[in-house]
Amino acid sequence: MSKHPGKSRHIETDLIHAGAENHIAGAVVHPIFQSANYLMSEESSYDELRYIRLNNSPNHHLLHKRLATIENAEAALVASSGMAAITSTLLAILKSGDHMLSHKTLYGGTQMFLEEDALPLGIQHTSIDMADPSGWEAAVTPQTQLIYVEGISNPLMEVGDLRAVVDFARKHDLISVIDNTFLSPVNFRPVELGFDLVVHSATKYLNGHSDLVAGAVIGSTKLVDRVRVKMNRLGGSLDPHACFLLERGLKTLALRVARQGDNAMRLATFLESHKHVRQVHYPGLESHPGHAWAQELFDGFGGMLSFTLHDVAQVQAFLQGLQIPLHAASLGGIESLVVQPARSSHLGLKEEERQRLGILQELVRVSVGIENIDDLLADFAHALDNL
Question: Which of 60, 110, 200, 226 is the most buried (most CB within 10 A)?
Fold first, then answer.
């Protein structure tokens, strides 16, 4: 993997050492500071008070430095969940009467926030296709402040013209925000492309062990500070013990992502040739509409894929026939997971909305783990061959 532009160290090294230059009491592993509050100093503002809810314990500070370093950004902020990171970011930038652009297919929680929470607050949004810049101009209004996309969309694995998104945002003086959860900083660092803010569900790849819920916001100091003030008021802080687990998980991120990407590529190739599979969504495949963009911008294609079978009955039989992947929500962990997005991540959307977005009942999403790929292929083959 190449070094960050202007950096002397590779990301694999920074994932382990960035922000941990001072070893407290000689400890190799950064300890957990399980203290809710700290002694007063020379604070000049409320947000400088040393208090867990204000996201400024030693565990928070270490994570902020490490996340900013691996994304090649100025600043970072951790949150109590990916949705806390996303909603705090949007509410920090947008107010009643404002308007935003967002990709037509988003994570279900984000889409529900826009539809059911932002709208009553007076924040409007218009859906765009991030792969088709021709329609963006007509969607902009004098009230438009922000454009929001996903690096790889959930659950259809769409990849858009992300370079055009950045250029469009600059042209119209919009703040560009991208959810980089599916790719992680190992495969893509949006700040280097020019995005203003990056959000993650750190529950997923950044932690990688399915044992905590967390989020992150990364970008310029000016914008991250705006989000920090909003998050401090909303209370979306991450507990120090969860900070410790997230920092530990980050240390193996590069190793995990490399293995998951290799496994996903082989599994996607296998699925594409199987008679019971109608379509495979994986940006590493040449058949993927966004493959050229993914090849140009990403260092890897990630461990997420989805595919459609021919009918819903096949989906149920397939899920029951698998032995290795677990039928469970979430993603990005070391274990392989399978779900029907229509019954998990996008269950909160109305059926007609799912149909409009192409999130069909026949769609299966796979978070590919680090198991032996031959075992995974044999398991998928057995479940599909018996449909």
Answer: 200
